[in-house]
Amino acid sequence: MKRFITYLVVIAAINGCADLDLVPKDAQSELNYWQTEEDAQIFLNSMYADLMNADTYLLLNALSDDAYTRAQEGYRNIANGNYDASNGVVRGMWSGRYASIRRSNIFLNNINNVIEISEEDRATYIAEARFIRAWHYFYLIELFGDVPFVVDEISIEESLELTRDDEAQILEFIYEELDLAIADLPSSVAGDQQGRITSGAAIAFKSRVHLYNGEHTEAAALAGQLMDEYALFPDYGGLFKMANENNEEVILSLQYVPVDREHGIQYFLIPPSLGGYANFSPLQELVDSYPMANGLAINDPLSGYDESNPYQNRDPRLSATIIHDEYTLTDFSGNDVTIDTSPGAEPNGLNFSSNSTPTGYYVSKFYDQQARNVSNSGLNLIVIRYAEVLLNYAEAKIESGTFTSADWNNTIRLIRERAGLSGAAALNYPGNDQEELRAIMRNERRLELAFEAGHRFFDIRRWQIADEVLDGWAHGIQTNVSPQDDGYERVDLRTFDTDKHYLWPIPQSERDINDKLSQNPNW
Description:
The two termini are 41 Å apart. By secondary structure, the protein is mainly alpha-helical. It is globular, with a radius of gyration of 23 Å. The model is unreliable at 1-28 (pLDDT under 50). Helix 5 (88-110) runs antiparallel to helix 6 and helix 10 (216-225) packs antiparallel against helix 14 (386-399). The strands form 5 sheets. Strands 1-3 form a two-stranded antiparallel ribbon. A two-stranded antiparallel sheet has the order 2-8. A two-stranded antiparallel sheet has the order 4-7. It is 41% helix and 8% strand. The protein has helices at 4-16, 37-48, 54-59, 73-79, 88-110, 119-144, 156-159, 167-184, 199-212, 216-225, 266-269, 284-289, 317-321, 386-399, 405-410, 412-419, 424-427, 434-448, 455-462, 466-469, 508-513, and strands at residues 67-68, 250-254, 281-282, 322-323, 327-330, 336-339, 362-363, 381-385, 472-478, 488-494.
């Protein structure tokens, strides 16, 4: 899993061969590559890197009502509705997923050519590749609907004849692939293999896919299979620290290693006084969704919320996720520092400079105090964890009308207790009103999974509420400079067109070279 530089060189050599009838004497090609088990392992490891890069992991969340990105124009324009089929993020998501599917097809077509491999290991490798291919198709149909369906290596000429296939057909393929993967994947892996896909990851992912497609009985049944297999890590904030990587809650994570393979998203998240640049900023809409520690919403007259001390006695996940005004953290030298985000405060205050926050907030969730050169971090990024499984189970049961007090205690109550909430309003079963349960569950997903792998982005789309939450101004902290919006800083004016924006457009660059690709409605 850690041979990042090696496999990049090897895969580049394979993909770069101009004439496959000749075997280069000084480089590996498709003709001489698939000889050893190590060849297969290196190629498979390269496919893991395709699952999701760190920028996508973070910036998908800026397409929701949780965050804003200042410098990433492609993402920002999708968030505010000002984009078309030429958008670079749309184009990159399409081309990147299909490039990854092609690599999966190459692997599956060649793995049986490797002779020196046990049949058990071969089955496991094939199962991992099936999961990865299903993963990419899931993202494609979620974003684009009907897409070309390819399960073999094809030529450039053949690719120019592709048409869009029915989303339902591809969804059935995803389920079939995951069933095959679950049958052959191990339930656990050795310590030096952490990060590899397990049967638990495939079950959790299949539960997610069913949930996203409104198949609640199936989603709940799959999530239920894992409820004795994993556990919540005791400390919510510690869950995202390098010292606790691969803990009992983590089901699948993107693996990073200091120096050998690092990501740089920390630069986007931390205050300028720590060397950061505020390119990803939490919004006030997210901050306001965190209740008090007693479980009551801040607009509840009994909550104890104090507008003059807005961050006191709040759900502890707020401070574990977001750096706010007068926030204290430990810097890279081990010193405790206080962050002043008030308007114009030097150097971290709201709009003090082009490096400082446009909303009054920074991100603490992925803060890596050991990061090399401030921003180069080897911190793993979690894409599936047990808390999501519990929330999937709760949502599926609520939507099917079968959620009980026992289900509450085994899901939402456990998550809130781990977070540090207490009191009857936070922990006691609220009753059988489906609308109330739905509202609680949806907000719980928002808080628990904030800034992770684009969960909120996908949630507001599948719940068909994006047109509600992406309508009008996105806000930062209250400045009282203007009477507009009660004095909250206006950050980005957003619109969401229900007639077109629930699906992304097919990239124009793809349709320019293949006129058989139809376009989504109203694009």
